[in-house]
Specification:
125 residues; Globin-like; 0% strand
Length: 125
C-alpha cells in the first residue's frame, strides 16, 4: 500500500481531516515504536511506505509495556489532538495496517501488543 492510500484509509475510518490524520498517523507509529520490541519494529518498518518508516523507530530493544489508555494519551500528546481523536486514529491505523502488511507480520505485531489491541483491530469498520 502506498502512503497516499494509507493516509486516505485512516482519514476515512477515523473521520479526521487529512492534516490531522497525518499527525495522528505519525504519532501512532512513534508510539508503536515504543510498544514493540526493536526487532519487531524493524520487521514492520520494512513493510511500510517510506514516508511512514521514519516514524517507526524503536528507542530500545525491549518493548515498553503499557495499555490502550496510555497508548491513546501518548498519541494525543504527540499529535496535539484530544484523546478521542487519538483513539479513533489509533484504531484506524491498526485496521489499515492489517491491509497494508502481510498477515503474518500483522499477527506478530498483535501478539506483542496484546488482546486489548487485537480486539480494537477487529472492532467496527
Amino acid at each position: 500500500m502506498q502512503y497516499e492510500e494509507f493516509i486516505s484509509n485512516v482519514a476515512e475510518r477515523a473521520g479526521l481531516p487529512r492534516e490531522e490524520t497525518e499527525k495522528v498517523v505519525a504519532a501512532v507509529f512513534r508510539t508503536l515504536g515504543e510498544r514493540l520490541s526493536g526487532g519487531e519494529a524493524e520487521d514492520l518498518r520494512a513493510q511500510l511506505p517510506k514516508q511512514l518508516q521514519a516514524h517507526l523507530v524503536s528507542p530500545e530493544e525491549n518493548a515498553q509495556s503499557f495499555g490502550i489508555e496510555e497508548f491513546a494519551r501518548r498519541v494525543a500528546q504527540r499529535a496535539g489532538v484530544d484523546e478521542a481523536d487519538a483513539g479513533a486514529g489509533a484504531i484506524a491505523v491498526l485496521k489499515t495496517l492489517r491491509e497494508a502488511v502481510s498477515p503474518g507480520e500483522f499477527d506478530e505485531v498483535l501478539a506483542q501488543l496484546g488482546r486489548e489491541f487485537a480486539a480494537l483491530a477487529d472492532s467496527r469498520p
